[in-house]
Amino acid sequence: MWLLRLSWALAVLGVTAGPSPGPSPGPTALPPDKASIFADLSPAELRAVRTFLMSRPELGLSPSRGGPLAKNSLFLVELLPPKKRLALRYLDQGGPRPRRQARAVVFFGGQAEPNVTEFAVGPLPRPSFYRPLRFKGGRTVPFAARPMTQLEYELLHRTLAEAMEPLYRLLRDSTGFWYHNCSQRCLTFSDIAPRGLAPGERRSWLVLQRFVEGFFLHPVGLAVLVDHRDPDPRRWAVQQLWYNGQYFSSPQELAERYERGTLAVARLAEPPFRQLFSSYEPRGHFATGTPTEVHGAKVCEPQGRRYWLRGNQLEYGGWSLAFRLRSSAGLQLFDLRFNGERLAYEVSVQEAIAFYGGHTPAAMQTKYMDAGWGMGSSSYELARGIDCPEAATYLDAHHLYDADGPVRFSSAICIFELPTGVPLRRHFDSDYQGGFHFYAGLEGQALVLRTTSTVYNYDYIWDFLLYPNGVMEAKVHATGFIHGTFYTPQGRRYGSRVHSHLLGNLHTHLVHYKVDLDIAGTGNSFETMDVRFENISNPWSPGARWEAQLGDPGQGWEMGPPPAPAPTHVGLLPAPDDGPDPDPVPRRYHLAVTRHHENEPTSSSIYTQNNPWEPLVSFEGFLHNNETIEDQDLVAWVTVGFLHVPHAEDIPNTATPGNAVGFFLRPFNFFDEDPSVASRSPVIVRPLDAPTFSRLEIQRWTPASPGPCVAPGPFTYNGTYRQE
Q1: 620 located within any domain
Q2: Which of 408, 423, 432, 343 minimizes the C-alpha distance to 720?
Q3: Dist. CA 183–CA 509, nearest whole Å
Q4: DSSP conformation letters of 561-628
Q5: Is there a contact between 243 and 254 (Cβ–Cβ < 8 Å)?
Q6: Distance CA 355, CA 610 (A)
Q7: Where does the record place the Copper amine oxidase catalytic domain (predicted)?
Q8: Residue 24, Cα to own-chain centre: how many angstroms?
């Protein structure tokens, strides 16, 4: 019997490092037309879906941008992947090709009982039908659970500008900036979620900040609670304000306190025009004086690319896979194979959350669940030579997310071969007399599939790495600006003072992955391997006793994030029945294994952020049906994360070293030997005249010299993402 071996293995390492098709693939590769059943919708398909739905009079759809909130509008269109059983019948049994469909999310705000409805639309490329998609249990999506839109933000801005008018003098005198009727020295805001304390609420704390470069690090000490549940913004209202440690019931009350001179005012220094602490402009010097004004080491491909990319199918060494970039949640791999044998049907990012602690109302309320912020659609342009090597292959992405047509995100994905800087394996066979019998080594390389998500202040760098020895690594780096709040002495319990008026708040990052492993078919089992010590008698020395390690090896693949327990800390993860507990991210489990069900495709949803109290997708429900997981089609759900205690060195941005987590898929007695022996990249050195060692035989299967490297050319960047 083939076993799905999921044992915790100690492992975590770094990352960083190619566009032309190569020769025809080997006979075990999946034809690219088959991989295309998993491909993202093309711009033409996105437009076709939108045109079809907009033409249906019964839906009554209006453009997303502009107009009132109380309207019916199309929010999201993305691929609706085929059901697994249909896909496998097509891929493995010569069955019919699954018809291509789209998932469309419609906000029905222009009716008596507003709601959100999802539809399957097809067949593509010329849609002719749509039907509602049902959530597990037949639940409907409350209108208050919908993600935010650009239109709602514009209306919030108008509401806040009007509310801040009485506070003009206070803000001008204390910060040098103001909110209403400003053209240059403006304040901006960041909004906090969840938006309230109970289902159906839509009340957001808005944190005011100076609108300068890196405004996330420039709070001015004022936060405003706005109730914006009603579809009519004329009924929105400011419910409370927090200023410099005190609560106020209205802007007028705060303004009156300032005019009377009884307010504890937080006066901020004028920000410098250059070398602002939140900027990337160089400042200071390294003590050694070693050069940094010249280019550092680069990645190159001296004999061309060693991977093939055809459409959404990627091949490298023994690996082949299909991939897509979901607007809702990010990278998703399908049909992951090694030497033609499927290892996983799907490996994908599901959710990323960050729980904060703090003294201010904004900090104590912050529990970000990034699928609700368009985590997959915030895949902005990757900078050549920085975000990915110059030699990488760069791919565009097209999203229809809160827009009136497809939006092109240039260079949103990159693919490159990475020199790891450490051998994949090596050995020096010493003769212990000053010489050696042989040396052999295989340079370490991996293929990297990368994208990023810039979810407002934070940047996540998402990587899947494929190694020649059959190991796959999933990894995410966290960088970008910390979510800081205004410093008060009481806040020191919840973080570090990282600048004069800035508190870096303690928080936990958790990232959730779906790993649908199909090892030698869909009938897998889950086992753990426990290791224990046992005292035994030494058979060749009576009376002596030894401790022996006992384990139960087996066959399959193992999965391994670090074995240490997840960090826990008071005040960051909600207690039972005390505020939102995001079931969709199984924070209680490093690993959970369930049976595959077509109605459990994801562990979270875009609605969880604004309704975590009654989530549409409740991961706990996946676990409570008491099903057997022996010889079944299994899905592993993996949670990785880390505790981030911000510090001064997080200024201006959190750095990637030490802020990465992930897991590995590794073969476990699956092959007869390390499959990387098929690589033609090793070097073997043998002496021909020991013990003088004056003549050596150097055996290699690649050119003797790698040749020239990086092609010259200036750095370029565009950074725009526009509807076409």
Answers
A1: yes
A2: 408
A3: 37
A4: --SSPPP--TTTSPPTTSS---TTS-TT-SEEEEE--TT---S--TTTTT--SS-SS-HHHHHTT---
A5: yes
A6: 15
A7: 298-535, 588-676
A8: 33
Cα–Cα dist 4/524, whole Å:
6
Answer whether 510's CB lies under 8 Å from 587's CB. Answer: yes
Which amino acid is it at 316? Y
In this predicted model, what pLDDT tens digit does every residue of 77-133 receive, in sequence order? 999 999 999 999 999 999 999 999 999 999 999 999 999 999 999 999 999 999 999
Q: Within this chain, do residues 669 and 619 fall inside the same structural domain, yes or no?
A: yes
Beta-bridge partners for 326: 330
Amino acid, single-letter form, for residue 576? P
With a pLDDT cut of 90, the percent of the chain lying above it is: 76
Q: Is 506 inside a domain boundary?
A: yes
Tokens for 540?
């060749």
Nearest to 26 by CA among 346, 464, 345, 338: 338
Q: Which domain holds residue 345?
A: 310-425+443-527+560-571+580-677
Q: What is the pLDDT of residues 339-389, one digit of tens each?
A: 999 999 999 999 999 999 999 999 999 999 999 999 999 999 999 999 999
Asked if 502 and 396 sit in the same domain, the reply is: yes
Burial class (CB in 10 A: 0-12, 13-18, 19+), 251: buried
**Three-class DSSP labels, 356-423:** ECCCCHHHHHCEEEHHHHCCCCCCCCCCECCCECCCCEEEEEEEEECCCCCEEEEEEEEEEEEECCCC
The DSSP output letter for 524 is B
Residues 125 and 187 reside in one and the same domain: no
522 shares its domain with 629: yes
The residue among 474, 242, 255, 500 whose CA lies nearest residue 363 is 242
> Residue 423 CB: number of other CB atoms within 10 A?
14
Domain count, the chain: 3
Give kind and range of the element (H or E) at residue 186.
Answer: none
| Half-sphere exposure in the Cβ direction for 391 (13 Å, CA) | 23
Predicted local confidence at residue 558, as pLDDT: 66
Neighbours of 520 (CB within 10 A): 16
Q: Indicate which residues carry an active-site annotation.
A: 370, 458
Does residue 16 fall inside a structural domain? no
- Please report, for the domain that includes residue 239, its CATH number: 3.10.450.40
The number of residues making up the chain comes to 724
